């Protein structure tokens, strides 16, 4: 993890929605919608001191109400079912049950709840696992006290909020997946066959029987059988048909 993480990226608001003060500095997809009642938030973190700090920051906001706190995923599931929060602000790694595992369990009990992972982890695997689990926000704990309420409002409005460094990794992963999907299918690995076994495999792929292969190569039929047995073993297939298919895919028969 870099000792100097990048500053969050800017996003835009309409003049009507924008609160006074400096512009938000996080990646955002879309605009937060207006709220007609306080946003009900549950804070989940196993470090009590850090958790209380988050609660004190959010409690200062008129449009945000912290309705419960939890110290691990199991407690979060139980309290979320009772309190039905709009937004769960949750750490990734906690004892007993981590935040990623808790997300789908809470969503099943309270379908409207949205999840924001607030964590020290900048690992791509944690980001992808969180998104798969249903999180719509992923923030690193470097977030400032002024930016946290804005992030909660945006998530509650149905939009996504991702730390800029993590958003860059996410975009890079999508680009790599797109490249893989557009690439031609890869040729299978070719085991080390002897020159004679390669000749037998090419003829086998032409649907020749053992006698015909022997006549072509001037070897006995029993010798052909031995070569075929070795070929099946090396290719890890169970029949001549499978070997023939493998030969075609591996281009053993190209131009033969």
Write structural notes for this entry.
Pfam families: GerE, Response_reg. Keywords: DNA-binding, Phosphoprotein. This is Response regulator transcription factor. There is one protein chain. This protein has 256 residues and is an alpha/beta fold. It has helices at residues 48-59, 73-83, 99-109, 124-132, 147-156, 164-182, 195-205, 210-217, 221-235, 240-249; strands spanning 27-29, 39-44, 64-70, 87-90, 114-119, 137-140, 160-162. It has a 7-stranded mixed β-sheet with strand order 1-7-6-5-4-2-3, sandwiched between helices. α7 packs across α9 (221-235), α7 (195-205) packs across α10 and α8 (210-217) crosses α9. The two termini are 55 Å apart.
List keywords for this structure.
alpha/beta, single chain, 256 residues, disordered N terminus, 45% helix
């Amino acid at each position: 993890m870099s000792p100097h993480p990048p500053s969050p990226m800017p996003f835009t608001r309409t003049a009507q929605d924008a609160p006074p003060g400096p512009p938000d500095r996080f990646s955002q997809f879309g605009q937060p919608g207006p709220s007609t009642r306080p946003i009900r938030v549950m804070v989940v973190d196993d470090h009590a001191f850090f958790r209380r700090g988050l609660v004190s920051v959010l409690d200062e906001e008129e449009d945000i109400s912290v309705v419960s706190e939890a110290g691990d995923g199991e407690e979060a599931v139980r309290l979320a079912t009772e309190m039905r929060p709009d937004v769960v602000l949750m750490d990734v790694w906690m004892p007993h049950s981590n935040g990623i595992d808790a997300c789908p369990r809470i969503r099943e009990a309270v379908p409207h709840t949205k999840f924001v992972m607030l964590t020290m982890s900048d690992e791509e695997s944690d980001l992808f696992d969180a998104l798969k689990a249903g999180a719509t926000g992923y923030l690193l704990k470097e977030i400032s006290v002024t930016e946290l309420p804005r992030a909660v409002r945006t998530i509650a409005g149905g939009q996504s909020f991702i730390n800029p460094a993590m958003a860059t990794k996410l975009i890079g992963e999508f680009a790599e997946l797109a490249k893989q999907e557009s690439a031609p299918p890869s040729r299978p690995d070719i085991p080390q066959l002897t020159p004679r076994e390669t000749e037998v495999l090419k003829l086998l792929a032409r649907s020749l029987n053992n006698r015909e292969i022997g006549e072509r190569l001037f070897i006995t039929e029993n010798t052909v059988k031995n070569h075929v047995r070795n070929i099946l073993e090396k290719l890890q297939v169970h029949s001549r048909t499978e070997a023939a298919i493998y030969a075609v895919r591996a281009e053993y028969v190209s131009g033969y």
